[in-house]
């Protein structure tokens, strides 16, 4: 550890040292959810550039690398459900989750369904039937919508999705607490939130974010790209570091949780 000058007394900085490669099994252990969950544990997985851009060319995929894609797969394998905002489903052209034979076998050994469903958060319930999330999936997605939109969504998406009313006081809004309560009631307690910024901002504002897995890509982007969060108000929530990993391409893979 490196001691800081007197002006920063009480603070010590630690140099991160390489510890060798991490196997797939070790990654699964590093990213395991807490045991014995009865309520939802909300993990978010996002990527950002060095200068804080969440996208390049309007999409997050351009920032990713091989290591980021590998972790993406590990986190999907461990999750009971993947939660995504409707805007991200459209922008990133989401399909259903697709897992290999090994991933499916490990999920079965943990008592999970072979494939996690995608849960789409949409206040309006207006989703086109020909989206890949409906047409290229093994399991029907969940649609988490408002009370006033739920009936119409069930009619439009009959046979394509399972629609849930997630309103509380305001019948035109999706309440985040009602949303996670619905997922817990369905037995989907290991939650993975993949986007977008508005959804992450909602979880932060409601104090429902338990964990953030943030990949820092070795690029600067400039421009007017959004941050990983977007919400009307600020909420200062402290998380604790669990680990920082790196790879030969210079990416940093950080994990923070309550």
Automatic annotation (TrEMBL):
The Bacterial bifunctional deaminase-reductase C-terminal domain is annotated at 41-252
Write the record's keywords in alphabetical order, separated by commas. NADP, Oxidoreductase
Q: Which PANTHER family match?
A: 2,5-DIAMINO-6-RIBOSYLAMINO-4(3H)-PYRIMIDINONE 5'-PHOSPHATE REDUCTASE, DIHYDROFOLATE REDUCTASE FAMILY PROTEIN (AFU_ORTHOLOGUE AFUA_8G06820)
What Pfam families is this protein classified in? RibD_C (PF01872)
Ranges for the region named Disordered are: 1-26
> Can you supply a Gene Ontology BP term from the record?
riboflavin biosynthetic process
Q: Which GO terms describe its molecular function?
A: 5-amino-6-(5-phosphoribosylamino)uracil reductase activity
Compositionally biased tracts (Polar residues): 12-26
> What is the designated name of this protein?
Bacterial bifunctional deaminase-reductase C-terminal domain-containing protein
Which source organism?
Answer: Mycolicibacterium canariasense (Mycobacterium canariasense)
């Amino acid at each position: 550890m490196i001691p800081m000058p007197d002006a920063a007394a009480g603070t010590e900085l630690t140099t991160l040292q390489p510890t060798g490669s991490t196997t797939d099994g070790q990654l699964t252990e590093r990213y395991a959810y807490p045991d014995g969950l009865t309520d939802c544990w909300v993990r978010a997985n996002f990527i950002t550039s060095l200068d804080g851009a969440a996208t390049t060319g309007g999409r997050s995929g351009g920032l990713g690398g091989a290591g980021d894609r590998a972790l993406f797969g590990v986190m999907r394998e461990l999750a009971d459900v993947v939660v995504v905002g409707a805007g991200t489903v459209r922008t990133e052209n989401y399909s259903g989750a697709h897992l290999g034979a090994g991933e499916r076998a490990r999920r079965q050994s943990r008592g999970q369904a072979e494939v996690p469903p995608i849960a789409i958060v949409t206040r309006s319930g207006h989703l086109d039937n020909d989206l890949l999330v409906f047409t290229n999936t093994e399991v029907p997605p969940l649609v988490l919508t408002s009370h006033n939109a739920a009936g119409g969504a069930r009619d439009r998406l009959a046979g394509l999705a399972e629609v849930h009313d997630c309103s509380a006081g305001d019948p035109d809004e999706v309440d985040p607490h009602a949303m996670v309560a619905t997922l817990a009631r369905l037995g989907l307690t290991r939650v993975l939130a993949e986007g977008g910024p508005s959804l992450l901002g909602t979880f932060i504002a409601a104090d429902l974010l338990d964990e953030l897995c943030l990949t820092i890509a070795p690029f600067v982007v400039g421009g007017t790209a959004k941050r990983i969060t977007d919400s009307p108000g600020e909420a200062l929530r402290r998380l604790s570091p669990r680990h920082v990993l790196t790879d030969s391409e210079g990416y940093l893979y950080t994990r923070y949780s309550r």
